[in-house]
């Protein structure tokens, strides 16, 4: 795992877009993001049961596996969205990028994109309500396990006026900025 500020330059979303400015783990945790490196599935299973995740599926995002819909899927995943549940992803093979919004400057709610590079054995937990997006990298191959509390269901809520007002979004901001207010004391 490596996190850095997205360079915001034009070009394929699958390129690294590395500005060269790293984002430290402490900043990611202040956004409510957790990361682990689990070379064995046993640890993934333990984490799943400790958080009451009883369902999972395995997704292979690649042109070979998905055929013609691959490019379309990759664009859908890259549309800025949030979920009303936390999102847990474990990379089994290949790699990919999750982009998440940093904090805005001067108390603004949303800042610039942070790119999080995930590789084999990386497990990431993103809190409900965080704006994010996903893309494969130039190798066009991500095999990941998605953990769910109930039946596997992926419901992205694309960013808009409605999601800005979403209760889970508001809860997330309270947690994020509340945590910061406490840390600053
Ligand atoms: C690597 S999982 C696919 C992307 C995804 O689940 C998401 O963007 O929410
Ligand atoms: Fe998502």
Automatic annotation (TrEMBL):
Residues where Fe(2+) binds: 81, 83, 87, 132
Q: Which domain of life is it from?
A: Eukaryota
Pathway entry: Amino-acid biosynthesis; L-methionine biosynthesis via salvage pathway; L-methionine from S-methyl-5-thio-alpha-D-ribose 1-phosphate: step 5/6
Under the heading InterPro entries, the entry gives:
ARD, ARD_euk, RmlC-like_jellyroll, RmlC_Cupin_sf
Cofactor(s) this protein requires: Fe(2+); Ni(2+)
Main location group: cytoplasm
Q: Which UniProt keywords apply?
A: Amino-acid biosynthesis, Cytoplasm, Dioxygenase, Iron, Metal-binding, Methionine biosynthesis, Nickel, Nucleus, Oxidoreductase
**Which CDD domains does the UniProt entry name for this protein?**
cupin_ARD
Q: Which Pfam families match?
A: ARD
Write down the chemical reaction(s) this protein catalyses. 1,2-dihydroxy-5-(methylsulfanyl)pent-1-en-3-one + O2 = 4-methylsulfanyl-2-oxobutanoate + formate + 2 H(+); 1,2-dihydroxy-5-(methylsulfanyl)pent-1-en-3-one + O2 = 3-(methylsulfanyl)propanoate + CO + formate + 2 H(+)
> Which GO BP terms sit in this record?
L-methionine salvage from methylthioadenosine
Q: What does this protein do?
A: Catalyzes 2 different reactions between oxygen and the acireductone 1,2-dihydroxy-3-keto-5-methylthiopentene (DHK-MTPene) depending upon the metal bound in the active site. Fe-containing acireductone dioxygenase (Fe-ARD) produces formate and 2-keto-4-methylthiobutyrate (KMTB), the alpha-ketoacid precursor of methionine in the methionine recycle pathway. Ni-containing acireductone dioxygenase (Ni-ARD) produces methylthiopropionate, carbon monoxide and formate, and does not lie on the methionine recycle pathway.
Protein known as: Acireductone dioxygenase
- Organism source for this protein? Aulographum hederae CBS 113979
| Encoding gene per record | ADI1
